[in-house]
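Possible regression after last week's pipeline update?

I re-ran a chain I had predicted before the update to compare outputs. Posting the input and the new output here so someone can diff against the archived version. Not blocking, just want to make sure nothing changed silently.
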Amino acid sequence: MDPEITPKYRRILLKLGGEALGGEQGFGIDPKVVLRLADEIKEVHNLGVEVAIVIGGGNIFRGLAASEQGFDRVSADHMGMLATMINALAMQDALEKMNVYTRVQSAIETRQVAEMFIRRRAIRHLEKKRVVIFAAGTGNPYFSTDTAAALRAMEIKAEVVLKATKVDGIYDADPVKVKDARFFSEISYIDVLTKGLGVMDKTAISLCMENKVPIIIFNIKTKGNIKRVVLGDKIGSLVH
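New output (post-update):
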């Protein structure tokens, strides 16, 4: 392989928010957007990188928001898990159209559409150069898909968690609303927690901190960013 395109990471956990699949409308699934994301994932996969993905379900259903509107929290979270399953199947379909072998593993039993999550099997899929998509979060209510991403990253021994967002990285305020919001190119786990920077939930940050797994927050809207991060380009914000 050309030394200029040698990946910095060999095994990654990519966390995609459900909204990323909704495109400009922000809800539902935009097939063009899913195909664009699948194409970028394929590019990284073609570099020989082992790719695991956790997708949120916010484009279809948000458990926490629904519980605040009167749904039982446990029921709402289960509905959110099923939303992530829909997104996982959409991404699997897009990747397999591009001849990328893919497996969906679910944290809840959905035998007809996905395998159950089994750690050793997931690792074996990755070793066989299949993309693995983890659906249904952790399978437990009260835990976000960010926490699921951190947990799965530890379980499969990923070298990094790549959190795809709609902004360029970590700011001390919403850069859309605050023009002079301060950008952090590098920040410690502790600072993220103490400053209350809402990049990922506290459980996810704590898990990564305890296990020394770096997190890179980057903008998914910029085409080619996943590949740039994997090649070690200085984009987004590094939490370490």
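Follow-up from reviewer: compared with the archived run. The radius of gyration is 17 Å. Marking as no regression found.
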